[in-house]
């Protein structure tokens, strides 16, 4: 749960034609809650490519196209994972000391990666979190670490010291090694990473007194980046809305739902606006109020079904009462035999 919250918290949506390589490290203060002491997950764009955990003790491919890497690669990544376990145990203990904590369950997380945009420009990032809050981050303008919590000040002073300059080492990795690895992985999975699937759209409404809750379900699209919103009268944006995160489907496509609470007035129209890289022009799918005739027919169907149920229940009850009377009568007859009468 902590990992997922941190992942969503740090997630950045990139351009559809750009690509990114990210790594998420999650270390805990001790085994428990079915969470490995250390886990490392790599992602190209939004697809997980590999996984290392202290429980399995090795790095394994998660995307089918990553199996193109040879055994030497996986052995090397496994050794890196094993060495990292000791480093993160130290990081967790250091963070607990900074927060004056001597026990309990705590979690230290790091996200870093690089991105190559469709215009050829590159960027990198690195963020550290502790117990669900950002602790410090790498400033990619000065290539120094900036504390976002008071407890990280000592650590940032040490790693920024002229004799250490940890930020410059991160710069070399993010701008060269990371980009090189990203381009290699993209070639392996290009067919999957760059496939295009047009979104499907369904709109519906739910009456709640004088207001209407409008729902726009957009599903089955790829890549992930999408723009969905409700529009009024074809131009005005509806600002009061609720939206789910963009969620994955089992087939690798995505879905999202955007809902808006409105008070319809005569002459107003509401449409769901959807823009995606697969569309030549953005879609504008209008919500149509349900005709009164259809509402009436639905009501009569419900009433008819209800009456049918009532008739059926009446018939069943009558049958059961009839059977009960027969059983009572039979039981009474069985009791009043000649022998029983004499003994009474």
Q: What can you tell me about this protein's structure?
A:
The protein has 344 residues and is an alpha+beta fold. It has 6 helices and 17 strands. It has helices at 2-10, 71-98, 153-159, 166-193, 292-335, 338-343; strands at 19-28, 38-44, 47-53, 59-61, 107-116, 122-130, 133-139, 144-147, 200-208, 211-221, 227-232, 236-237, 241-243, 247-248, 254-262, 270-275, 283-287. It has an 8-stranded antiparallel sheet, sandwiched between helices. Strands 9, 10, 13, 14 and 15 form a 5-stranded antiparallel sheet that branches. The longest helix has 44 residues, at 292-335. The protein starts with a helix and ends with a helix. The model is unreliable at 1-16 and 293-344 (pLDDT under 50).
**How large, in whole angstroms, is the Cα Rg?**
32 Å
- Helix/sheet category: alpha+beta
Instruction: Please write the string of helix (H) and strand (E) elements.
Output: HEEEEHEEEEHHEEEEEEEEEHH
Low-confidence stretches: 1-16, 293-344
Strands of the largest sheet, in order across it?
Answer: 4-3-2-1-5-6-7-8
Q: Kindly report how far apart the N and C termini lie.
A: 75 Å
The total count of strands amounts to 17
The percentage of residues in β strands lies in 25-35%
What is the helix tally? 6
Mean pLDDT: 82
Bulk shape: globular
State the share of residues found in helices, binned by percent. Answer: 25-40%
- Give a quick account of the main beta sheet: strands, pairing sense, barrel closure: 8 strands, antiparallel
